[in-house]
Amino acid sequence: TLGQDSSRINSLVSMLKTMSKEGLAIVVITHDINFAAEHSSRVVIINNGKILLDGEPHMDLSQEEVLHSANLEPPGSIRLSKLLGLPPMLTVDEITKAIESRNGTGG
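Above: the chain sequence. Below: its structure as tokens.
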């Protein structure tokens, strides 16, 4: 998904969601950590043939030291949520809701 325009990514996401709703297992191999963070229910980080992480994106994609060992950076959303003193968050919507909740402005 790296280098793809947003309409092509949106089309891909729509197709993958449709396939998933039909009961198909979806495996996406990507170097786009932000795409993986936003659209995956499970992530597996592999480096030099060794599985470093295998599990839930919120927790696995916030393990900076392990990600760095695989030459990856945590997704921007996780870095932002950390800067804001929030638990790891994968989407802007999650961050917005957490801030609104913290400030008592959620609705």
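The longest strand covers residues 50-55.
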